Amino acid sequence: MLISRDFKFDSAHYLPKYKGKCERLHGHTYKMRVTLEGEPDHEGMIFDFVEMKEVINELVVSKLDHYEINQIIPNPSAENIAVWVWEQLSGKFRDAKLVKVKIWETADCYVTYKG
């Protein structure tokens, strides 16, 4: 069984290895979806949504929201952001397994990373 939770954060970045307008500093309102897999426990839950929010806010959102992402990820493409998020969250959900991170850079452009 899968559970997911969505988050938003505002950040600036530039793509130093890209040739085009995105090589210059600009910002996005990113959307992020984190998906866990597991079996419901004695309370009927895979992982508590409240605790999931706390973990993800502490380990990811608080580090990216209103920051220049290049200070954290040298080449912050959506793909590299998704990998970084995975690395921050992998193994942080007890018996639930992290199975997917999805990052939307715009409303219709996103990347999905499955580890």
Shape: elongated
Span of the ends, CA to CA: 18 Å
CATH architecture assignment: 2-Layer Sandwich
Mean pLDDT: 96
Secondary-structure element string: EEHHEE
Number of strands: 4
- The helix/strand class is alpha+beta
Main β-sheet, spatial strand arrangement? 1-2-3-4
Note poorly predicted spans. Answer: none
Helix content: 10-25%
Radius of gyration: 15 Å
Report the CATH C-level class.
Alpha Beta
Number of H- or I-type helical stretches: 2
- Strand fraction band? 25-35%
CATH topology: Tetrahydropterin Synthase, Chain A
CATH superfamily: 6-pyruvoyl tetrahydropterin synthase/QueD
How does the major sheet shape up? Answer: 4 strands, antiparallel
Domain module tally? 1
Write up this protein.
It is a single chain. This protein has 2 helices and 4 strands, in the order ββααββ. It is elongated and about 50 Å long. It is α+β, with helices and mostly antiparallel strands. The protein has helices at 49-64, 78-89, and strands spanning 2-13, 26-37, 97-106, 109-113. The chain has a single domain (2-113), classed as 6-pyruvoyl tetrahydropterin synthase/QueD (Tetrahydropterin Synthase, Chain A, 2-Layer Sandwich), CATH 3.30.479. Strands 1-2-3-4 form a 4-stranded antiparallel β-sheet, covered by helices on one side. It starts with a strand and ends with a strand. A hairpin with a 2-residue loop joins strand 3 and strand 4 (109-113). The protein is 24% helix and 34% strand.
